[in-house]
Design brief:
- With 243 residues, this protein is of the alpha/beta class.
- 36% of the residues lie in helices and 19% in strands.
- It has a single domain, classed as Acetylglutamate kinase-like (Carbamate kinase).
- The protein contains eight helices and eleven strands.
- A nine-stranded mixed beta sheet has the order 4-3-5-2-1-6-10-11-9, with helices on both faces.
- The longest helix has 25 residues, at 72-96.
- The chain is globular.
Length: 243
């Protein structure tokens, strides 16, 4: 019996900067970067085209900087540069696994990353390269969640995989509220109306307008990315009309 085919052929994986911290309180944990790269490499070897958007919260968060008195635009620009540091760390790990990778940045730093050009990004995917999209949207006041939604539309991804530290979407934070229950499937409007902390409202609205499904899953469980790609019901799904 032939092996099952992947459920999607082109996916966008959204990683928070905090995901790269592992057990650390700050910065990049090489072991965690290796774990993520290994999973991405496994999925890539199945012929799935992979685009990654990564945050920078393990190094600097623009919102936190502005709340402490820093100019919001300057703080967000610092956050964008933090995402580039994370992207380079992940690229290095992937290329040690012989996965050809390109970092494309919305903030132009040509000596270390290509500028994000939509057609070039799609061409990289078509050639079998993993692309890491850094710099957010390139604009202040927009989160990397919004960047993930925007880039998913631009590169024509079929789904957004939103990596978290819990196994889906809950009615409340399960780490703080023991009565919180997991919601396996729900609609975009339900996420917005209930104020569920999945992605920010801009990202959810953009996905709703373009019918882009979102799978929220636990990144810390090894093998979850591959399981989702193979069609297993992992985590929670946000879509227009859940079945």
């Amino acid at each position: 019996m032939p092996p099952a085919a992947p459920a999607w052929r082109r996916v966008l994986l959204k990683l928070s900067g905090e995901a790269l911290m592992g057990s650390r309180d700050f910065g990049v944990d090489p072991a965690m970067v290796t774990q993520i790269a290994t999973e991405v490499s496994q999925v890539h070897s199945m012929g799935v085209e992979m685009a990654l958007v990564i945050g920078g919260g393990n190094i600097f968060r623009g919102v936190a900087g502005s709340q402490s008195g820093m100019d919001r635009v300057t703080a967000d620009q610092m956050g964008m540069l933090a995402t580039l540091i994370n992207a380079l760390a992940l690229q290095d790990s992937l290329e040690h696994m012989s996965v050809t990778t390109r970092v494309l940045s919305a903030v132009e730093i040509r000596s270390v990353a290509e500028p994000f050009i939509r057609r070039r990004a799609i061409r990289h995917l078509e050639k079998g390269r993993v692309i890491i999209l850094a710099g957010g949207t390139g604009n202040p006041y927009f989160t990397t969640d919004s960047a993930a939604a925007l880039r998913a539309m631009e590169v024509r991804a079929e789904v957004i995989l939103k990596a978290t530290k819990v196994d889906g979407i809950y009615t409340a934070d399960p780490r703080k509220d023991p009565t919180a229950t997991r919601l396996p499937r729900l609609r975009y409007l339900e996420v917005l109306e209930r104020g569920l902390k999945v992605m920010d409202a801009t990202a959810i609205s953009l996905c709703m307008d373009n019918k882009m499904p979102i799978v929220v899953f636990n990144l810390l469980e090894p093998g979850n990315i591959r399981r989702i790609i193979m069609g297993e019901q992992i985590g929670s799904v946000v879509e227009e009309s859940p079945s």
